[in-house]
Design a protein that fits this description.
- The complex is a heterodimer of chains A (431) and B (398).
- Chain A is an alpha/beta fold and 431 residues long.
- Chain A has 17 helices and twelve strands.
- In chain A, strands 3-2-1-4-5-6 form a six-stranded parallel sheet, sandwiched between helices.
- In chain A, helix 1 links the parallel strand 1 and strand 2.
- The mean pLDDT of chain A is 95.
- Chain B is α/β, with parallel strands linked by helices and 398 residues long.
- Chain B is 34% helix and 14% strand.
- Chain B is elongated, with a radius of gyration of 25 Å.
- The two termini of chain B are 42 Å apart.
- The chains are: A alpha/beta (431), B alpha/beta (398).
- At the A-B interface, helix 2, helix 3, helix 7, helix 8 and strand 6 of A face helix 1, helix 2, helix 6, helix 7 and strand 6 of B.
- Strand 6 of chain A pairs antiparallel with strand 12 of chain B.
């Protein structure tokens, strides 16, 4: 695997940080999650919970402290499974115990990379500042990932995905004209921020390979997002066309390149939709043909791109009259076979059960652990011919139960015997 | 703590990928990959036909005047690269022999027809990493299907979860929405960059290149957070609807997340702030310190927050929430982000000279701060063919 032999001591929690080490784990790095039994990662104890066989779980929605404290175990939080594939191991250590801190320092000495996503300064207060870590391991690559990063006037600000999305313009860019933003209903920036966290780790590793140097790389959840609005930012600055203007954001319509029809159209069924997107004259001609060359399509107003864009509302209604009588997958299939870009609006159930492409590509990997049956889980969505990534990482295993690898990690990494580990456990160090 | 103040001199240090040569033969769907690699310090050379890459002809354009060197869409995703005009595929293959990485967006049949499939390239350049970014990947029943960003956002699941909620009758009267800015393409491009980095890390030891197959659909399908797990756990799927927002006195909206589940300190911090502001009302009742009571009476929490919002403008409300330890954020348009004092202090936005226009342009810069291998933001986007001669003389065979 690509990152064979790389060891990451991983203090990340929640989504953003854990997404970064998930990528590294899927590429073959040994990722050791350092956790606490006293304060487990919130997503370990937050609904939805992976149900026992035959039992029905509870939906996410009101993730209050009340139902978090009612968690059936620290190993059934569903969101934990999303962000902790990659064969991560779990080691529980009480960092407040002097022997716990000493243990962590020994592990730093044996690790290539240390990752964390605590509020700025937390790890330093534990006694593991970058200066302390590099005194132990001079070439350590320390990647910190908190909302605003460790440097700057607002470092004490905290983020979750939707916070960062609001502050960086991404919430604003989802909406219909002249209505409040609809935004994202999920933490897109937990993913994007996490990917850039993984980029930071890999760049640090490549730099160290060439120079022998470690460093402290500081990742925030804001900076990975500022380039995601693409040309809109430049258009605002250079052409005096701010995104905050009447009529914008324009729903699913895109001004560049000018194209119509393009958007989400109702399909048969309850709240079912299909996207059709004609970006070229050839797409439009193919769409007309696929619809059976209706008379209205010959309307001279629709003869050019400019005409179709100008009359997009009428055009959309005519296209929707055709799509709304058909199943969304049927529309997609018919149009694609004719050479028109089209796709069903799919939810999570569709992707798992009705998407033949994801199935053929083996997008999901069945993995479980000691407490949970096998589930179809996600890893990194790309293939590498010589060093194939694996959703179960180097261990080919599901996300870890809390503390399940204490003995294996301390034995393999620090050469401790089972008795040594048991002694530490009895002193409360491994909690 | 060592801060960026200690590192300005470091901006002249080489990036992590200094010396790595990348040939980019892509349409607009994957240019963001090369942008990331260029930021990491790679020498990214865009191989363009004489009329220029497709994105040079996509707007918006500077002053709304079209032209291959005036596309802002091109600028946004090609900053930091060099441009070489190629007249045939033999020239592309010659570039590849001198490169470490090829990133392309060719369908398998196209690549084969042009002599740019992995087999022959690997034969002549065993160390070459070849990354193909395509809508659906190299194989599978949809491999030949067509997709733009909108189609990928639909199939991947983002759209199903984004948009306005249903009306009072429970019926959705507005469509699922995709975020502007080509997010599925950007996600695929970012994964492509990760695949390239992984391949380069492995090549450092093995000397071997390999083929990377990036399906934009799979990338898009893997970025909807807990949606798959919710379905697996509960049999329910997420329907679309906005996150809770507060409307401030100036009409601005603030994303007001209250992650009660993180522990009792979250509500304690909020209550203190609401009491200081004189709007806590019934929340001061000790019963509310019990999370079970709170969960059952969350409407009162929300009412108090609305009373707070009526008193302050959006920026102030955002900072009040943050002062109480809450992950609140004011909803900004992209251009409003430029004013953020924190990003400014971190030196995030960079000014690059466009000598041909006798002006400078502001670009988003480093996605993270790496003092010993800093983000490289020195080159403005290339003019068409600007570096054809330069690269020809600088690049020798690998």
């Amino acid at each position: 695997m690509a990152l064979e032999g790389l060891r990451i001591l991983d203090f990340t929690r929640l989504g953003f940080g854990a997404q970064a080490t998930l990528v590294c784990g899927c590429l073959g790095a040994e990722v050791i999650r350092v956790e606490s039994t006293r304060v487990p990662d919130a997503i370990r104890v937050m609904p939805p919970f992976v149900p026992e066989p035959g039992e029905r779980g509870e939906a996410f929605g009101a993730a209050t402290l009340a139902n978090a404290t009612g968690a059936p175990s620290a190993n059934r939080g569903g969101i934990f499974y999303k962000y902790n594939t990659g064969g991560k191991r779990s080691l529980t250590v009480d960092a407040r115990h002097p022997k716990g801190l000493a243990l962590l320092k020994e592990l730093v000495a044996h690790s290539d990379v240390v990752t964390e996503s605590f509020a700025a300064g937390t790890l330093a207060r534990w006694g593991l500042s970058y200066d302390v870590m590099r005194a132990i391991r001079p070439d350590v690559i320390y990647v910190s990932m908190c909302g605003f990063g460790h440097w700057g006037p607002d470092t004490n600000h905290v983020t979750m995905g939707p916070t960062a999305q609001a502050l960086t313009g991404l919430t604003f860019l989802v909406g219909l004209p002249d209505r409040p933003p609809a935004g994202w209903s999920f933490s897109y920036l937990d993913h994007v921020g996490g990917y850039l966290g993984a980029v930071a780790v890999l760049a640090g590793v490549i730099h160290r390979g060439r120079t022998g140097e470690g460093q402290h790389i500081d990742v925030s959840q804001l900076e990975p997002a500022t380039a995601l609005s693409g040309a809109l930012l430049l258009d605002a600055m250079l052409n005096d066309r701010p995104s905050r203007r009447p009529g914008f954001p324009s729903g699913n319509r895109r001004a560049h390149p000018p194209c119509a029809p393009s958007g989400a159209y109702r399909a048969r069924g309850d709240d079912r939709w299909v996207v059709v997107s004609c970006r070229t004259e050839a797409h439009w001609a193919a769409l007309v043909g696929a619809m059976g060359t209706p008379a209205w399509a010959a309307d001279p107003r629709f003869a050019t791109v400019a005409g179709r864009v100008e009359h997009a509302d009428e055009l959309d209604a005519l296209v929707e009259a055709w799509t709304s009588e058909r199943d969304r997958y049927e529309v997609m299939e018919v149009l694609q076979r004719s050479g028109v870009p089209a796709g069903a609006v799919q939810d999570a159930a569709d992707r798992l059960e009705r998407d033949p492409q994801l199935a053929a590509r083996r997008h999901y990997t069945m993995l479980g652990n000691a407490e949970v049956d096998e589930l179809p889980l996600e890893g990194v969505p790309f293939r590498m011919s010589a060093t194939p990534p694996h959703t179960g990482g180097r261990l080919r295993r599901g996300p870890p139960c809390l503390g399940e690898d204490n003995e294996a990690v301390l034995g393999e990494v620090l050469g401790m015997s089972a008795d040594d580990v048991a002694a530490l456990a009895s002193e409360g160090v491994l909690s | 703590m060592t801060g960026p103040a200690a590192t300005p001199a470091a901006t002249t240090l080489p990036g992590a990928l200094e010396g790595v040569r990348v040939v980019e033969l892509t349409d607009e769907s994957a240019e963001y990959c090369g942008r990331l690699l260029a930021g990491l310090g790679a020498d990214v050379v865009k191989a363009e036909p004489p009329e220029g890459a497709p994105s040079r002809h996509i707007g918006p354009f500077l002053d709304d005047e079209p032209g291959p060197d005036r596309s802002l869409a091109f600028w946004a995703d090609n900053v930091g690269k060099r441009s070489v005009v190629v007249h045939d595929d033999a020239e592309v293959r010659a570039l590849c022999r001198r490169a470490d990485v090829l990133v392309h967006t060719l369908a398998p049949a196209q690549a084969a027809a042009r002599g740019l499939d992995f087999g022959p390239l690997h034969e002549s350049s065993p160390g070459l990493v070849v990354c193909a970014v395509t809508p659906f990947g190299q194989d599978g029943p949809w491999a030949d299907f067509l997709a733009d960003d909108l189609v990928l956002m639909a199939l991947g699941g983002s759209m199903a979860a984004c948009g306005y909620g249903p009306g009072p009758d429970g019926v959705y009267d507005t469509p699922p929405l995709a975020c502007h800015g080509d997010q599925a393409w950007r996600t695929a491009s970012t994964y492509a960059a990760l695949a390239v980095l992984g391949a380069l890390a492995w090549r450092a030891g093995s000397g071997q290149g390999q083929f990377l197959d990036v399906s934009a659909h799979e990338c898009s399908a893997s970025m909807t957070e807990w949606h798959l797990m919710t379905y697996l756990c509960s049999g329910q799927v997420h329907r679309r609807g906005p996150h809770p927002t507060l409307t401030a006195a100036d009409g601005r909206q603030v994303a007001a997340l209250n992650p009660d589940f993180l522990g009792p300190h979250v509500f304690a911090g909020m209550l203190e702030m609401l009491e200081d502001e004189g709007v806590a009302g019934p929340l001061s009742d000790p019963a509310f310190s019990d999370p079970v009571h709170r969960a059952g009476n969350y409407r009162e929490v929300w009412r108090a927050l609305k009373r707070l919002a009526e008193k302050h403008d959006g920026e102030t409300l955002y900072r009040l929430g943050q002062g109480a330890g809450l992950p609140w954020g004011v909803i900004r348009s992209p251009e409003e982000v430029l004013e953020d004092r924190h990003l400014r202090a971190r030196g995030h936005f960079v000014e690059l000279e466009h000598p041909e226009l006798a002006r400078s342009v502001t670009y988003p810069g480093a996605p993270f701060l790496a003092p010993r291998s800093p983000w490289v933001a020195r080159r403005r986007p290339p003019l068409l063919g600007e570096h054809t001669d330069e690269v020809g003389s600088q690049w020798s065979d690998r």
